[in-house]
């Protein structure tokens, strides 16, 4: 029996992996099945031998196979053509009861898995059926809609495109009596032909048309267009458009006559259409024909009704027109005179609005009437007048998508019945506010060509509707209402303005008197505030000591005096120095007894330092637990060192804080004046560096900044500058060391190792700059440069997987996984061919974040390997929680396999192998440099390795072949 197509590695091992957990370590499991529809499937553990595949083939074919003490088999049949088989190989003999129990459990799990697969298949079939049914309903609805024929056909095209690939789609009608074709609809992304639905094309004018061959053949056609032309003897003709990679056409039949066809085609993908699409398009084509017939019948009926109605209306129209026009003109003239009079005689705006309503009510139905105005700031709609049967009160509102706002936005009148309103709602242009009207008429109110409001009438009864005549009438009246309203509002504003002016004059007089008194008070308050701000800007808020800013000012003055002496040719008679002091383990106090206790300790430390220094020296707090002392007028540097020792003794005295006795200590760095310093920040920087040297020497001590430290600092600065330039110049490259299978030395992947092409020092290994990169934070940028190179290499070459080292700093970034996956996607690389190597410290810094990140990467195919295993915590208590694919045995244990430490190293490697086996993961031995090491590792169960025995890092990948011995 042929093996089914292999799924992805994770999916293939999921079911078998669950079954494998119930067997001894080293067991192998293979599951085969054939679904009810005959589709094959399988699941297996890694590296299943061909013998198990042959046994599974025999079980699926005959239902039985030979079984031995190390082989477990079972096979059973389900509904229809369903059959499933299980084959497992165990490295040791299992008790019969355990064998039966495992097979029973395996059968239940496989049956549940197959049930889920079948349920999913049935759901997909049901979904397809529902989509087809919905499409047919939509086509039927379109047939009865008021859409134009072109719009209806475009929507039918969209419905068909939802069922299959139909970007290139057309519908033709065929008249067999006249032997002519009409292209009713034509949409094509390559063929520029523009169809005229009214144009009849005689068949004799298009003898080389594949569409005509379809109509005369009378049965569906499917395949490449060049093959169909050969089949039906149709010559190639460029007038009929470009060739298709796949072409599907189905005829439309009315009774037994072919009356048209529906065609879809693909220019760039062959075999897009299969039997399922052919049957589906045939079924849809008949419904399209039904829709076209219904549309044609309805149009014929409407045309006949319209012709008869037109004849009756024509005789009456002329007679009524003159009467209506004369009456309308008289009413309109009276209304305009009345509005002009009201704008002058109405006492208030409210009265003006009510009287205008009465005037409009004489011209048309205005039982429901309102006037809307745009607020002064343009943000609100206000309703100064409203009379309505349903909505008794209309509150002001912000601009929304009501009919009123629609008229304001468009700047033209709107006459809308219920269908028109619903159509505007479907298009998202309006949203009904308040009670739904049966018919609504609104016209804009203008002021100097700007819409400032709306006058509207509406009807809630189907018996009452407005006409275009009403719209013209209300539009004409609205123009004069706008003029009258502007005049009335101007009069009202003038009266209000006079009153407000008098109030403002009186109010302003009082305010000026009060302002004079307030101004004098504010001047004094401002002077006090400036003094307070000046003090706060130059002093520490907690200790009251001078802050960094004031210290730098004093340092700048001291440096300026020293430089002035040097410029005049005089050596300064007195020297000065800076002491940089940092409290040791201050964070421990904060974390144990709280920040308030830490503040108390800082205040006490400041007091003790001040009590120790001389009267002219300055003590400043720089921030946190850092202090600085500027000592002036010293003869030798030994005075500064003596002061540092006195400060350390004073700070070392016990101190009670939060009920606990603590013994503070500090580290002090000293930097003396030198002509090379240009500002105080440079002096502080070197004193800070000396302080870190004191901390490194064991804390509670002092150190003096000397030339050796300066040279080291300059070297680090130069190296950091080189590192930044190298990042900008992309001077980092990835070297690849092969990872091989120890049994046959076959290359299975590579580890990418970082190298720096230094412009002066040549190729540098990570050990020469990785520490600086970690301290400065630049290592993350370097890593991303290397990740980009690896991604491009993965997309370009097929040489197994590549593993990259991930710094623990990356695990502090919440978007590391998403950024790495996005990088692979942009490069077109397969995530399943990338591994990340992490250390145990990265896992333990933030286990929750690390677990989420590893799960995200694994779900997208990127597996994780634990690097340098055995040198850290190496505890099962945390290791089993993380989704790891591999443990990398540290090179120190591999080196110990040969020599005096062999027993201890073998015990460690054996324990690592046992741990990896219990977790279901494999191992890779690092640093394999001799054949004897390879042999011992194989005997201990290690499957893979890397080291100089198999190849040194190089800038090219090795092919996936067995390396020579």
TrEMBL record:
<dbReference type="InterPro" id="IPR029016">
    <property type="entry name" value="GAF-like_dom_sf"/>
</dbReference>
<protein>
    <submittedName>
        <fullName>EAL domain-containing protein</fullName>
    </submittedName>
</protein>
<dbReference type="Pfam" id="PF00563">
    <property type="entry name" value="EAL"/>
</dbReference>
<dbReference type="Pfam" id="PF13185">
    <property type="entry name" value="GAF_2"/>
</dbReference>
<dbReference type="InterPro" id="IPR001633">
    <property type="entry name" value="EAL_dom"/>
</dbReference>
<dbReference type="InterPro" id="IPR029787">
    <property type="entry name" value="Nucleotide_cyclase"/>
</dbReference>
<feature type="domain" description="GGDEF">
    <location>
        <begin position="574"/>
        <end position="707"/>
    </location>
</feature>
<dbReference type="InterPro" id="IPR043128">
    <property type="entry name" value="Rev_trsase/Diguanyl_cyclase"/>
</dbReference>
<dbReference type="InterPro" id="IPR052155">
    <property type="entry name" value="Biofilm_reg_signaling"/>
</dbReference>
<dbReference type="Pfam" id="PF00990">
    <property type="entry name" value="GGDEF"/>
</dbReference>
<dbReference type="InterPro" id="IPR035919">
    <property type="entry name" value="EAL_sf"/>
</dbReference>
<feature type="domain" description="EAL">
    <location>
        <begin position="716"/>
        <end position="965"/>
    </location>
</feature>
<dbReference type="InterPro" id="IPR000160">
    <property type="entry name" value="GGDEF_dom"/>
</dbReference>
<dbReference type="InterPro" id="IPR003018">
    <property type="entry name" value="GAF"/>
</dbReference>
């Amino acid at each position: 029996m042929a093996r089914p197509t292999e799924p992805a590695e994770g999916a293939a091992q999921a079911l078998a992996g669950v079954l494998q957990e119930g067997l001894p370590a080293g067991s192998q499991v293979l599951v085969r099945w054939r679904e009810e529809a005959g589709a094959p499937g399988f699941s297996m553990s890694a590296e299943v031998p061909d013998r198990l595949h042959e046994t599974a083939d025999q079980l699926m074919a005959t239902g039985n196979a030979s079984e031995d003490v190390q082989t477990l088999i079972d096979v059973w049949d389900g509904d229809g053509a369903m059959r499933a088989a299980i084959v497992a190989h165990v490295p040791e003999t299992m008790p019969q009861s355990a064998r039966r129990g495992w097979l029973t459990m395996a059968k239940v799990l496989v049956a549940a898995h197959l049930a889920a697969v079948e349920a999913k298949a049935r759901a997909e079939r049901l979904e397809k059926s529902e989509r087809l049914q919905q499409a047919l309903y939509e086509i039927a609805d379109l047939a009865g809609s008021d859409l134009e024929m072109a719009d209806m056909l475009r929507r039918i095209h969209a419905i068909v495109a939802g069922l299959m690939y139909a970007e290139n789609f057309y519908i033709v009608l065929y008249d067999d009596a006249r032997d002519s074709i009409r292209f009713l609809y034509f949409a094509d992304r390559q063929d520029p032909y523009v169809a005229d639905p009214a144009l009849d094309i005689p068949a004799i004018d298009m003898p080389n048309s594949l569409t005509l061959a379809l109509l005369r053949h009378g049965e569906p056609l499917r395949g490449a267009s060049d093959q169909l032309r050969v089949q039906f003897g149709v010559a190639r003709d460029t007038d009929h458009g470009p060739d298709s990679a796949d072409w599907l056409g189905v005829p439309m039949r009315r009774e037994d006559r072919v009356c048209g066809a529906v065609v879809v085609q693909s220019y760039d993908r062959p075999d897009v259409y299969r039997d399922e699409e052919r049957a589906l398009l045939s079924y849809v084509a008949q419904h399209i024909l039904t829709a076209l017939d219904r549309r044609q019948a309805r149009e014929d009926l409407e045309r006949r009704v319209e012709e008869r109605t037109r004849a009756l209306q024509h005789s009456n129209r002329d007679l009524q027109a003159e009467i209506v026009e004369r009456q309308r003109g008289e009413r309109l003239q009276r209304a305009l005179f009345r509005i002009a009079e009201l704008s002058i005689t109405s006492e208030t705006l409210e009265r003006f609005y009510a009287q205008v309503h009465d005037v409009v009510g004489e011209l048309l139905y205005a039982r429901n009437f309102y006037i809307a105005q745009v607020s002064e700031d343009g943000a609100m709609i206000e309703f100064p007048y409203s009379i309505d049967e349903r909505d008794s009160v209309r509150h002001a509102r912000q601009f929304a998508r009501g009919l009123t706002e629609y008229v304001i936005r468009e700047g033209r009148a709107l006459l809308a019945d219920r269908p028109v309103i619903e159509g505007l709602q479907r298009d998202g242009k309006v949203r009904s506010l308040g009670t739904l009207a049966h018919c609504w008429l609104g016209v804009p109110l203008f002021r100097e060509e700007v819409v400032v409001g709306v006058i509207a009438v509406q009807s809630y009864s189907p018996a009452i509707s407005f006409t275009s005549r009403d719209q013209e009438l209300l539009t004409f009246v609205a123009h004069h209402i706008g003029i009258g309203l502007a005049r009335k509002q101007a009069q009202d504003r003038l009266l209000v303005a006079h009153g407000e002016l008098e109030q403002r004059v009186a109010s302003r007089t009082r305010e000026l008197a009060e302002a004079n008194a307030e101004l004098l008070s504010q001047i004094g308050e401002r002077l006090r505030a400036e003094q307070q701000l000046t003090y706060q800007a130059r002093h520490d808020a907690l200790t009251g000591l001078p802050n960094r800013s004031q210290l730098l000012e004093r340092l700048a003055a001291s440096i300026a005096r020293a430089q002035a002496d040097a410029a005049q040719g005089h050596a300064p008679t007195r020297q000065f120095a800076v002491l940089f002091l940092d409290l040791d383990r201050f964070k421990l106090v904060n974390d144990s007894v709280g920040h308030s206790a830490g503040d108390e300790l800082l205040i006490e430390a400041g007091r003790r330092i001040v009590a120790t220094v001389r009267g002219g020296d300055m003590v400043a707090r720089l921030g946190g637990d850092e202090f600085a002392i500027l000592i002036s007028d010293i003869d030798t540097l030994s005075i500064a060192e003596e002061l540092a020792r006195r400060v350390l003794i004073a700070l070392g005295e016990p101190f009670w804080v939060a009920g606990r006795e603590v013994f503070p200590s500090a580290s002090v760095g000293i930097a003396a004046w030198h002509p090379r310093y240009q500002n105080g920040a440079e002096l502080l920087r070197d004193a800070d560096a000396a302080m870190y040297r004191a901390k490194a020497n064991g804390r509670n001590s002092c150190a003096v900044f000397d030339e050796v430290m300066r040279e080291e600092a300059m070297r680090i600065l130069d190296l950091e500058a080189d590192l930044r330039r190298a990042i900008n110049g992309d001077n980092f490259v990835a070297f690849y060391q092969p990872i091989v299978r120890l049994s046959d030395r076959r290359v299975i992947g590579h580890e990418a190792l970082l190298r720096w092409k230094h412009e002066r020092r040549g190729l540098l290994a990570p050990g020469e700059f990785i520490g600086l990169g970690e301290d400065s934070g630049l290592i993350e940028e370097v890593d991303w440069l290397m990740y980009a190179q690896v991604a491009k290499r993965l997309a370009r070459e097929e040489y197994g997987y590549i593993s990259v080292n991930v710094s623990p700093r990356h695990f502090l970034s919440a978007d590391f996984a998403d950024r790495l996956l996005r990088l692979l996607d942009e490069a077109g690389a397969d995530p399943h061919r990338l591994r990340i190597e992490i250390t145990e410290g990265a896992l333990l810094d933030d286990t929750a974040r690390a677990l989420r990140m590893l799960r995200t990467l694994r779900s997208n195919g990127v597996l994780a390997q634990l690097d340098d295993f055995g040198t850290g915590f190496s505890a099962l208590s945390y290791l089993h929680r993380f989704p790891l694919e591999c443990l990398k045995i540290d090179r120190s244990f591999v080196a110990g396999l040969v020599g005096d430490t062999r027993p201890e190293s073998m015990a460690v490697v054996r324990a690592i192998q046992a741990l990896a086996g219990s977790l279901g993961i494999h191992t890779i031995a690092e640093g394999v440099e001799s054949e004897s090491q390879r042999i011992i590792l194989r005997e201990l169960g290690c499957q893979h390795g890397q080291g100089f025995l198999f190849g040194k890092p190089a800038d090219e990948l090795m092919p996936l072949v067995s390396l020579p011995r």
